[in-house]
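Summary: Need help interpreting a holo structure output

Steps to reproduce:
1. Submit the protein chain below together with the SMILES for nicotinamide-adenine-dinucleotide.
2. Request a joint structure prediction with the ligand placed.
3. Inspect the structure token block that comes back.

Expected: a single structure record containing both the chain and the bound molecule.
Actual: see attached output.

Input attached:
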Amino acid sequence: MITGGGNGIGRATAVRFAAEGASVVVADIQEAKAQETVGLVEAVGGKAVAIGVDVVNRDDNDAMAQLAVDTFGGLDIVVTAAGISHASYDSGDIENEAKWLQERADQVDDPARAVADMDIDEFRKVMAVNVEGTLFGIQACLSRMLDLKTGGSIITLASIAAKHPDAGPLPYVCSKSAVWMMTKKLARELAVADIRVNSIGPGFIETSMTAVIDMMPEDRTDALWDGIPMGRKGQPIDIANAALFLASDESRYFTGEILHPDGGYFTE
Ligand SMILES: NC(=O)c1ccc[n+]([C@@H]2O[C@H](COP(=O)([O-])OP(=O)(O)OC[C@H]3O[C@@H](n4cnc5c(N)ncnc54)[C@H](O)[C@@H]3O)[C@@H](O)[C@H]2O)c1
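--- attached output ---
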């Protein structure tokens, strides 16, 4: 099961897993993009099925978990990659990102005022998709995994923003920090059911979500690249490879861990 499988990291993970023989459910709010991912999976000789899912909707999550069992007869790996960087984020809409950056130009010069004026609905939207959406997806899949008694591996998508306040806007860093703590707590709760729960905390990866960085003034991005010893973004496949390790028996003694494919960001 891969939520957010219609683009970026989720899509790369779906294709990577399928190439290793996994049957994949590709769940995404953008159903057409999920279907495109299924096409990419089939192109590498893999099996996948797409479903339109809003991760904040419990019925949608239930339908996606049931689809895995009905279509493939099991459910043992869950990757929760659906996420947003800000309330109006719409994956793949680059013009929308340019508009968002423009609207925030004043806030960069007066960050304290921006906090005072922050719209709480925007905060709640990011928390709902990134935190509740992660939990709902896990709950729906977990209930089937417990019935099936086959154990498994759950992989959440946190971020370097889970631990570093500079790696995103206020709602985003709060949401990713919550996803990381949720991961550790679930690891402790689910060990008894032979289900491991780990997280990936990527640095800046080249997807729609980081396209906004390329639109920023050079003085801001220079500082950002200076903070990354490798001096560049990573690729979605770098995260898919980490997810593959966490999904496989090669990581069988890992639970409650976070891996940071980040080009050295956390060496400071
Ligand atoms: N790109 C990065 O640098 C980076 C770094 C750290 C963490 N992450 C995290 O990795 C995950 C994937 O991000 P990405 O970079 O691949 O972005 P992306 O925009 O390419 O992919 C996100 C996917 O999630 C889907 N989605 C958004 N809201 C949804 C909802 N309510 N229900 C179902 N699907 C929804 C989108 O349609 C999209 O297909 C996110 O959780 C993100 O926060 C990304």
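--- end attachment ---

Reviewer comment: The chain has a mean pLDDT of 97. Residues 120-148 form the longest helix (29 residues).
Status: needs-info
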